[in-house]
Specification:
The structure is a single chain. This protein is mostly helical. It has one domain. 69% of the residues lie in helices and 0% in strands. α2 crosses α3. The protein is globular and about 30 Å long. The N and C termini lie far apart (32 Å).
């Protein structure tokens, strides 16, 4: 089951993850989401903004 997460929550997660000393568990408690959901959102943002991801997939084969 996939939840729709608002852009406002995603922005808050990105701001919190860039703050030194804050763990993912603390972020999950702060925005009232599960740990796995936070990890999924962060991985989506990483793949969206990582220019080397496509190149690595191409060069893998």
């Amino acid at each position: 089951m996939t939840m729709e997460i608002s852009d406002e929550i995603k922005k808050k997660i990105c701001e919190l993850i860039s703050t030194p000393g804050i763990t993912i568990e603390e972020i999950a408690n702060n925005v009232n989401l599960e740990y796995d959901t936070i990890i999924e959102i962060l991985s989506e943002e990483y793949f969206k903004h990582n220019p080397d991801y496509g190149r690595r997939l191409c060069c893998r084969f």
